[in-house]
Amino acid sequence: AQKVTQAQTEISVVEKEDVTLDCVYETRDTTYYLFWYKQPPSGELVFLVRRNSFDEQNEISGRYSWNFQKSTSSFNFTITASQVVDSAVYFCALSEAEGGGNKLTFGTGTQLKVEL
Amino acid sequence: DVKVTQSSRYLVKRTGEKVFLECVQDMDHENMFWYRQDPGLGLRLIYFSYDVKMKEKGDIPEGYSVSREKKERFSLILESASTNQTSMYLCASSLQAGAYEQYFGPGTRLTVT
């Protein structure tokens, strides 16, 4: 069975600090997909990034970057120069390629609070 | 842009009532999903559907049923609501199975008293 662990329940930083959100996953599949979602206070989950298991290249999108390491089964998310608008709950999720319906298994989320 | 809408943002029901939560997506997506979100537990999959009239149980289907009569609409039914079903319910859709990201609706916060 697949599993996603986000050990950090809540992180507080001051604006402009860099922050890394950890994600560790477990799966028996060789082909799988990893995702990060953001849930702002309004409640709607917003897709941020997808990574497949064959592509370990790091990805950068503006102030956001993702580090995928198969050797440690981790898919960490870094926000550079954090801003108050980054305050949200962030979820890491895993989808296995086998089976139907691309079911996502979510971690329990990390609440990020960015203060002035 | 993909749009997933849910019929209510907030809903209050009494124990024993039959409750319908409706979800509609406008992007012709094959797959649709219902999750519930509870503090400390993240999102847990209740049911999903990969085609019209097809449904599969997720991780916590007990006490729920679903209906998908049209491709764009996926309904979650609580046959006899109980207080432990008080939660945030999120609907999602995705293009196909496998690698595709899911798009979420705004959620329905259901309170059962």
What does this structure look like?
The complex is a heterodimer of chains A (116) and B (113). By secondary structure, chain A is mainly beta. Chain A has strands at 3-5, 10-14, 19-21, 24-26, 32-39, 46-52, 59-61, 64-69, 74-79, 88-96, 104-106, 110-115. The radius of gyration of chain A is 14 Å and the shape is globular. Chain B has 113 residues and is mainly beta. In chain B, 0% of the residues lie in helices and 53% in strands. Chain B is built from no helices and eleven strands. Chain B is globular and about 35 Å long. The mean pLDDT of chain B is 93. The chains are: A mainly beta (116), B mainly beta (113). The A-B interface holds A 9, 33, 35, 37, 42-47, 50, 52, 91, 95, 97, 100-104, 106-109 and B 31, 33, 40-45, 48-50, 56, 58, 88, 90, 92, 94, 96-107.
Quickly count the helices of chain B. Answer: 0
3D shape of chain B: globular
**Whole-angstrom Rg of chain B:** 13 Å
Order of helices and strands of chain B: EEEEEEEEEEE
- Give the distance, in angstroms, between the N- and C-terminal Cα atoms of chain B: 37 Å
Query: What is the C-alpha radius of gyration of chain A, as a whole number of Å?
Result: 14 Å
DSSP strand (E) fraction of chain A? Answer: over 45%
Number of helices of chain A: 0
